[in-house]
Amino acid sequence: MFLVIYDIQAERDPHGIRIRLVRALRRSGALQIQRSVWIMESMRPDLLRIVDEFRRAGGKVKLSEWLPRSLGEVASNESQLRKAFLAVIGADPLAEEWHVKISGILEKFGYMVEVRPVSESAMAEYSKIFGRRLDYSAMEKSTSRLLDEAVLDDLDALLILNSGRTSQSGMVYVAQTLSNTKVLKGMTSLPLIQIESPGKPDSAIVVWNETGRGLADRLAGELSMPVITPSVEIRRVTVNGSREVRQIQYAEVGDIIVVNGKEVGICLSDKVYLIAEGGRIVDIMGGRLFAKVKKLKLDSLGKTIIKTVPRDTKASRCNKE
After folding, report:
1. Phi and psi for 82 in degrees, rounded to 5?
2. Which of 4, 145, 192, 300 is the most buried (most CB within 10 A)?
3. Terminal-to-terminal C-alpha distance of the chain
4. Are 196 and 293 in the same domain?
5. Quick one: pLDDT band at residue 236, thresholds 50, 70, 90?
6. Are strands 280-285 and 111-117 parallel, antiparallel or unpaired?
7. Which residues have CB under 8 Å from 308's CB, separation 6+?
8. Do residues 25 and 144 lie in contact, with contact meaning Cβ atoms separated by under 8 Å?
9. Same domain, yes or no, for 83 and 198?
């Protein structure tokens, strides 16, 4: 990851080069930390052209490699106040008030807690509970993007609250989501824990990095839930010539298949495979492809977020990724 810092005096910017640079950074997928401070994975040629124009206008640009660290990692005072984010995926954990119970436990541990919905359905439920207007700009962002933005804030632990159909399917979905993050997946020093399906028989606390094990063990004692370390294979993609084939895990007959937040088909068996060619889904083995889906563009099946939901589940309640 790269840290980009820039500045230009107003009198040297009569043609709005700063604004064009900001727009170019957004198009490239960069994440803003503060005013004139961004992080990004790479400098694309179109962005470099804008940077060159910015410098020719008299602006200054500093570029360095960026290695994120949490305050909790470098602080020596064990009694220091810690800040935790409780990122909620889906409406059910909020409707069942698990965010209240878990926040209370974390506060007892000495954490200051911020609850943050990171899916469309969670945002809608959060707005209903707290009487706040929906943040439509956030609803346009993927869950992976919202998690990346969360960890750029001031925090010492990130907990993901989710409730999948089964704990295993919930872990697979979160694993897909985490693999598509840019910042979070590199922050191995930040405790990262998933609280999956609380209140259900197969509930579990999932430890996504060893840094979070101590906190996970303490939560397990309070919630009477087992702690597990996931071992899930989330990218079963086979390449056959120009075609990609990927199996859908935990499919059930009648399920709706959701790809990147869009309904694409229906499962007709429990062995279902998506087939893509030229950046588009062209067929579903063991299922039926919806006709309108052929316009849906993909980078690759390996980077795609796939889930299944019961047939009577509305598309608006699907986790958007």
Report:
1. -105, 150
2. 192
3. 22
4. no
5. low
6. unpaired
7. 165, 169, 248, 250, 251, 252, 255, 256, 257, 258, 267
8. no
9. yes
Strands 192-196 and 204-207: antiparallel
- Residues near 177 by beta carbon (within 8 Å), at least 6 away in sequence: 89, 143, 144, 147, 305, 321
Q: How much is the pLDDT for 317? A: 42
C-alpha 91/C-alpha 135 separation (Å) is: 16
Q: According to the model, what pLDDT value does residue 112 have? A: 93
Q: Is the pLDDT of residue 94 over 50?
A: yes
Beta-carbon count within 10 A of 111 CB: 22
Q: Which residue has the higher pLDDT, 125 or 42?
A: 125
Domain shared by 274 and 247, yes or no: yes
Cα dist from 157 to 67, 87, 106, 235, whole Å: 17, 11, 10, 27
Alpha carbon distance 203, 291 (integer Å): 37
Tell me which of 74-78, 85-89, 167-171, 221-225 is least confident. 74-78
Query: 215 near 191, Cβ under 8 Å?
Result: yes
Find the domain containing 309 and state its range: 237-317
End position of a domain, from candidates 171, 196, 228:
228
> pTM, whole model, 2 decimals?
0.70
Phi and psi at residue 203, to the nearest 5°: -60, 155
Pair 189, 211: CB distance under 8 Å:
yes
In the chain, the number of structural domains is 3
The reply to whether 32 and 139 lie within a common domain is: no
Q: Give the CATH number of the domain where residue 60 resides.
A: 3.30.70.240
pLDDT tens readout for residues 163-188: 988 888 888 888 888 888 888 887 77
